[in-house]
Amino acid sequence: MPLTAPPIAVLISGTGSNLQALIDTMGGDYRIAVVLSDREDAPGLRRARKAGIPTVVIPWSSHGDRDGFTDAVCDAARRFGAEALVLAGFMRILGPSGITAFPDAIINIHPALLPAFPGAHAVEQALAHGVRYTGVTVHFVDEQVDHGPIIAQEPVAILPGDDVESLHARMQTVEHRLLPRVVSAFGRGELAVEGRHVHWRQPTQTRGVI
Ligand code: GRF
């Protein structure tokens, strides 16, 4: 087991229900040091403040390009001691300097079974495509969008009569279970990345990939 809960930064753009799940599960395995958002009106910021977690807003427009924005995000995360970034409904793509700054230490949650339906409209696209199952993927972030090594996946059946709202609501109950489980395992140093494969291993005295 790690000697102390590793500090992480959670990045959001919206409602922050996954952030809330992470707040509710926070403890010995990880600590949320800061919540970062590109939108000052992101409702999830209120969840952080209520939990007494510092927040920083970094508007995309204040940087003008991906590299400048990425550096600002990483600098803010580091200022609060974060050793990893968790993208929980963060609608911006970080540039290559972010991957270099946090190697194998950026985790994203995506509402589809990657590599199917990457991008910002995964739930709509799964419905439109007529697949019978979609699901939730939690993965490490690499230089390509919704592409890095997969840590965990769980399928969700598409039911007759589903629309985007009903399907997404069912997927979110899965997300709220899966993401804290992954971040806890990460915090305990149990995730090891080997190429495209992520191995879940037994806890050790070290922090592993952190
Ligand atoms: C989630 O469905 C997540 O998979 C996607 O964005 C959504 C964020 O929801 N990347 P919330 O803000 O955590 O409620």
What does this structure look like?
By secondary structure, the protein is of the alpha/beta class. The chain contains six helices and nine strands, in the order E-H-E-H-E-H-E-H-E-H-E-E-H-E-E. Helix 2 links the parallel strand 2 and strand 3 (55-57). Mean pLDDT is 94; it is low at 205-210. The strands form two sheets. Strands 3-2-1-4-5-6-7 form a seven-stranded mixed sheet, sandwiched between helices. It is globular, with a radius of gyration of 16 Å. The structure holds 5-O-phosphono-beta-D-ribofuranosylamine. Residues 12, 14-19, 44, 88-89, 109-111, 172, 175 line the site of 5-O-phosphono-beta-D-ribofuranosylamine. 5-O-phosphono-beta-D-ribofuranosylamine binds next to helix 1, strand 5 and helix 6.
